[in-house]
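[Discussion] Sanity-checking designs against the backbone

I'm trying to build intuition for which residues belong where. Below is a structure token string of 169 positions. I'd appreciate it if someone posts a full sequence so I can compare it with mine line by line.
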């Protein structure tokens, strides 16, 4: 039975066990079985918290992808581009929320063909719920745009920024 108290390790007021140790401090310290970080808290199944979170989100993204029904083929391709982008990096629970919001939009609204970075800016403004922390590069449509730029469909983002600057000048 846990009760509130001061943890004898971290000196924070938290729920503590009978030895007055909070749950976070009670985790064993070791080497993560996936990323190899040493002297880190081992959360579950020999993994640090970040690797455990990554695996949980990756599993859920695969489930969402398998059950996702896009409004049209273009929306499905955009979704696949988004998944390809996010799977390159360390996944967090925020990616899961973003993906759920994206599937709702792509299954109900037709997205016009993206031809330039101005289209991306318009989509980012039209769908603010697809941003993580309202940070421009972390918007779902911006992630798709980076993939489109890699495929040669869009010019590199830097070129678009230079054109925008020249237009303003």
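Best answer:
Here's mine. Compare freely.
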């Amino acid at each position: 039975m846990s009760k509130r108290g001061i943890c004898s390790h971290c000196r924070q007021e938290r729920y503590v066990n009978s030895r007055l140790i909070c749950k976070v401090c009670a985790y064993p310290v070791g080497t993560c079985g996936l990323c190899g970080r040493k002297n880190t808290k081992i959360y579950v199944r020999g993994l640090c918290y970040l690797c455990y979170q990554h695996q949980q989100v990756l599993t859920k993204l695969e489930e969402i992808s398998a059950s996702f029904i896009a409004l049209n083929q273009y929306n499905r391709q955009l979704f696949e581009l988004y998944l390809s982008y996010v799977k390159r990096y360390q996944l967090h629970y925020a990616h899961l929320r973003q993906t759920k919001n994206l599937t709702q939009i792509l299954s109900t609204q037709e997205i016009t063909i993206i031809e330039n970075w101005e289209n991306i800016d318009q989509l980012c403004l039209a769908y603010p719920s697809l941003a993580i922390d309202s940070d421009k590069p972390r918007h779902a449509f911006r992630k798709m745009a980076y993939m489109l730029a890699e495929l040669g469909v869009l010019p590199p983002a830097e070129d678009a920024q230079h054109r925008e600057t020249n237009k303003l000048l």
